[in-house]
Amino acid sequence: MWQLPPAATMRQRFLSFLASTEPAPKPRGSHLRPPSASLAASATMSRNQVVIKATPVGPAEAHYTQYTIICSQPGSYQWWVAFRRYSEFVTFRKQCSKALKGVQKSDHAQALSPFTDSLVALGRCPFPPKHFIVDDAEILAERKAGLAIFVEHVLSSYDDARRLVTMLGVAQRGLVEAWLRLATAFLVVPPDARTSRRRHTTLCAADAVCSICLGSIDDKGDDDKRSAGAVFETKCHHHYHRKCILPWLEKTQTCPMCRHRVVSGRWY
User: Where is the PX domain (predicted)?
Assistant: First the structure.
């Protein structure tokens, strides 16, 4: 049974992501590179950025590796975090294969052909193999690289399915909506990110000041005064300077203004 890691562990991983720009490790073999004909050529692929981090969990006799999935959509300034084990990736991949067979046998297969193509490409995406030995550094590097590519393809298929479902009739969209629910649950996609649309925030007078340092937050995007990503907006729509909120989150994962838990949000 999958369980959430301790709050302190989640906080540390969360802060590590915010404070670093560590690139994903290179794959062990060339078989992990996405083929040129795959969804890697899709426009939606370029808008999704995925980082996978691996953490050993549990005592030596019951050890397993937990993968932290950090997803971001630069076009919409959305990001979120999910936690999964390798076996859960395998299960989800099988569920996608089952969904593909259901679509191919459907009475609406012709209308759903774009969705079929998307799932076929997802099934062809390189996937790290299962190993029967303890996860060593080489295996972890291979899996982190391969799973990141897989999640990027899932997000591309997700965006494509979201667009397609708006063009389908009520009788045709059932299978697409079922897969969207499946992918949403697996990646723990927050509501704001599901719309895949860029949202510009208008700061009110109260939010124009960082409540931590009481300094002003300039929303005009003056590149000479503020670099991209210098301001954070929490899910509760409060805004802080990056340099101010990071030290705060080292102590607690709550919003300084309203005390809501901070596990996702956007930067600009």
Answer: 45-187
